[in-house]
Every structure is written in C-alpha cells, then in structure tokens.
Records
---
Amino acid sequence: MEREIEMSGVSSNEPSVDTGLSALLQAAREVARNSYSPYSRFRVGAALKLSNGEIATGTNVENSSYGLTICAERSAVVRAVAQFGPQIHIEAVAVANLNDAASPPCGACRQVLAEFIAPEAPVIFASPDGVRTMPFRELLPLAFEMKTK
Ligand code: ZN
C-alpha cells in the first residue's frame, strides 16, 4: 500500500505531521535504540522510504577512532543498497534521536543521500525549533555530481 507523503513545514507537535512521515519518524526512533554510540551517547536513527515500498533503517555506529564513525543516514543508505540493490530510489527520509537534540543530516550524509534521492523528497528531522520537514533540494542545493568530459 502506498502511503501519501506531504510537506508539513516546521511543527513542534508531531501529530500534525502526515501519517506517512510520522510512521517513518517512528521507525527512525525505534532503530535509534540500536545505536552504537559509547563515545558521544548521541543515539540517532534514520529511516528511508524507498520507491519499492520498503523502509530501510540505519543507526549511527561509532568507533574509538572517531573519524571512522558512520552516521545513521549513511548506515541506512548502505543497508538499503545491500538489501535491495543499486537501483534504489529514496522517496522520503526521517532522522530521529533519543537525546532530544537537533539532528539534521550532516553534510556528508546529505551528499550520500543525493546519490539516490529525488530533489523534492521530504526530509523530516529534529531541528532547533521542533520537528521540521524540508525538501531535499533545500538541504543540499549544490550537490557534487561526477560529470567528466
Ligand atoms: Zn551524517
């Protein structure tokens, strides 16, 4: 069954978010419980709604060599490709954390998402002013693209 996804703008009350994105946000929250974050204790989850109807989730996995840490969003993308193949298309993204903190996708994750996501796909995340939904193109207006001559 296809769920309807709409933009809902900034909202501090989650019930005002449409049901498709609310379910995706809930999936992100649930997977955040599996976070491996012994260093920061910042527990993050991400859920991707794919065009094949599936939801792929990921969580952050930290490392004692901090730079090797992978964020929840990239973890979800890697999982989606591993599970469904390289042709995945992301229709919506939800990012949640269990720390009551803002957690918009970081720059690296935005670039990785750009490989598979439609410009208008909604991205829902905790922002400093509440839960916010933005089209992906506003999060990363000038994504790098490999174009050789
Ligand atoms: Zn990231």
---
Amino acid sequence: MKKAFIFDLDGVIVDTAKYHFLAWQNLATSLEISFSEEQNEQLKGVSRVRSLEKILEWGGKTISEERFTKLMSEKNEEYLNYISRMDTSEILPDVPRILDYLISKEQGVALGSASKNARIILEKVELYDKFHSIVDGTNVSKAKPDPEVFLIGAEALGVSPENCVVFEDSVAGIQAANSANMISIGIGNPSVLHEADYIFKDFTEIKEEFIDTLVTTQKV
Ligand code: G16
Ligand code: MG
C-alpha cells in the first residue's frame, strides 16, 4: 500500500536552529533584549513573524509596524547568509538512508516545513530531488500546531491523512500531525515530545523493519 511520509525540515533533516539562533540573537541585542538558547528552543517550528513577536514580548518592547518589517528582513538576510554556506555535511545522521529506503519501496515522500527558506536549504544539501512534494511557509496560511501544512502535503500526494506518517522535532509539529489524524514520530527528546505516537533520538535508531511496519499500519 502507498503511504505518505512527511518530513519536517529544521531539526529533522538539518539543524538550522543554530543559524536561526545567531540571527535572532543579533536582532535581540540591537533591541537591548537578552535572548538565550532556551528561548530559541521555544521558537522551533514557529513562523518568522510569530518568532519576532515572542522576542518582543519577552523583552517587553513595542515597535512600529515599519520597524517590525525591517527587522524581519534584516534577520532573514543574515540567516540566508549562513544558509548559503551549507552543504551535504549538514544533513542529520541517517536521513539519506531513510529517504532512499522509502523511495525504493515506492512510498510518497513530502516536506512539511514552516520555513519560507525550505527550498533553498534542500538545494544546498542536495536533497531537493528526493521529495515528491514540498510544502513550506510560502504555501500555508496557518502555522503549526494547525495541521494545514501536513494536510496539503497529503493531498498533493493523493494519500488520506490516516495513511500518512510525520517526522517532527517540535511539540507544535507533533500536535499538528496528531490533529491531522496522522501517525506522529518525534525525533529528539522523549520528555519534550511525549505526545508523539513513537519517539526516536535520531534516524540512526530507526530500522528498515520499523518502516516496513509503518507501511502496513494506519493511524487509529
Ligand atoms: C522552521 C524553524 C523555525 C523558524 C521557521 C520559519 O520550521 O523551526 O525556528 O522560525 O521555520 O523559518 P523562516 O524564517 O526560514 O521562514 P520547521 O517547520 O522546518 O522546523
Ligand atoms: Mg522542526
């Protein structure tokens, strides 16, 4: 049976959180707001606009709409600068093994990311061609935990939600997968991702046999 396997990008395929952190930290410093790695954790899977809103809330600052737009584009410029230096060495362990296995089994493979820069990143790490469908921040109107991003991916592949499997590293992403009625697989820390149907530290823990079971399982 054909299933759809939908991958989040940041934190699942590559670790771009470190680049988001550097760029947000620079922005926060220019606003005299302190910004920690713990706070950056809370921005994972969160849209660019919402991330800046949160940083301003943490710092107790209000700014004009004009300045908000300017800061967002400055942050993105700096982030793009980091991204431009990415290469295949930044792919997280065993991601190509899992993608190639799914492709060899003729399963649907999609990307479901909040990032508006997802396509550039996939090109830089040479994984763009592995995906049958790419849904990113430019295709959605509602951010995770809303299931929109994953539902669009499922529809593009012509697979019903209960026949989809989502790999996610963020709490909001797991919640989005669950409310889409898809099998949710947390990649990362079990104490953070406890709402997921299955949790793995990273893809090195995922065996081909487990993928085979997913191919024959539906979300119940
Ligand atoms: C990613 C990151 C978030 C980032 C968001 C928007 O989502 O996890 O930290 O704020 O994309 O990114 P951009 O500024 O590039 O549009 P995901 O869903 O791939 O984890
Ligand atoms: Mg993520």
